[in-house]
Write a structure and sequence with these properties.
Number of helices: 7
Structural class: alpha+beta
Radius of gyration: 22 Å
Strand content: 15-25%
Helix content: 25-40%
Strand order of the largest sheet: 9-10-8-5-7-6-11
Length: about 300
């Protein structure tokens, strides 16, 4: 294994080197068809920044010999270890939080990723987007208000949120910071002038109020705000001290447009290094195009 500037280069021997016995044996035909002859197997493609599922559409595992399936699984595991982002996604908890405009919320969560988790720029996972609605567009898209009549998040019942991947034992820390902020604002959020269901307060975790992460969220709240089970397309929470809690399996996160990522707030202006995260994470593949109009303001 070689280490180079934070990246891991895995040196995997050819397929023939994995066979038992004192002398090399012929490579089985099914392995030749999948990996080629005498070359290092290619790692399966990682699909999505928040999804560590590994798949190769060209491999029919049911027809492979047991040892070949074991080899493929080993290579896949090494690929996950080679990607810090994929490893985080596999071991952490994806949770989303909304509290008014997502520009401000994203900045606060990125700061906590840096200070609380010591994450480097390429390891930042906080992305702005939408959740909590019952409907999506015809192709699964959820978009900001636009002139192209694309699937409008407000009309579809969603609210602005920021999704972040955190270690399981840090869910409470991130939830506490969220509740601390909500408690200090008279109307429950930094921008009470933004009114409507698109800005309602929300937390999304796997299983919602019935999931394993809810105990940490509830403890972090310590009775300060009213936690209400989200039903989808829910009402605004401004001035109520309520927070909708969503099951992120039922109401998943939909990444927002690229132009919304790492954006200045309506009032606050953030450092250039913060804005640079957008270009960096697009290059890294952590931010994807979402099939919505990119207006670029």
């Amino acid at each position: 294994m070689w280490m180079w500037k934070g990246a891991v280069l895995l040196l995997i021997p050819p397929v023939s080197a994995w066979t038992a016995g004192p002398a090399p044996t012929a490579v089985p035909e099914e392995v030749k068809a999948t990996f080629g002859t005498g070359v290092t197997p290619a790692a399966p493609q990682l699909r999505g920044s928040g999804d560590a599922a590994l798949a190769d559409a060209n491999v029919d595992n049911s027809r492979m010999q047991p040892w070949a399936r074991a080899l493929l699984a080993t290579v896949a595991g090494l690929a996950v270890m080679a990607s810090p982002r994929a490893a985080m996604a596999q071991s952490g908890v994806n949770m989303y939080m909304g509290q008014g405009c997502f520009w401000h919320v994203q900045h606060e969560i990125v700061k906590q990723e840096a200070s609380g988790l010591a994450r480097q720029p390429t390891e930042v996972t906080a992305l702005a987007g939408y959740a909590g609605g019952k409907e999506v567009g015809s192709k699964g898209e959820v978009c900001y208000h636009n002139m192209a009549m694309a699937a409008d998040y407000g009309q579809l019942g969603h609210t602005e949120v920021v999704n972040v991947n955190v270690p399981e034992d840090k869910v409470g820390d991130f939830a506490k910071a969220y509740f601390d902020a909500a408690e200090k604002y008279p109307f429950g959020r930094a921008d009470p002038q933004d009114r409507g269901t698109e800005y309602r307060s929300a937390i999304g975790i796997p299983g919602g109020m019935d999931g394993p992460a809810f105990k940490a969220v509830e403890a972090a709240n310590a009775g300060r705000l009213e936690l209400v089970r989200g039903q989808g397309n829910d009402a605004d929470t401004v001035g109520t001290k309520k927070v909708w809690v969503y099951d992120s399996n039922e109401f998943p996160f939909h990444q927002g447009e690229i132009y919304h990522q790492f954006h200045d707030d309506m009032i606050e202006r953030y450092p250039q290094k913060y804005h640079d995260l957008k270009k960096l994470l697009v290059k890294e593949g952590a931010i994807q195009k979402v099939g919505c109009p990119e207006m670029g303001f």
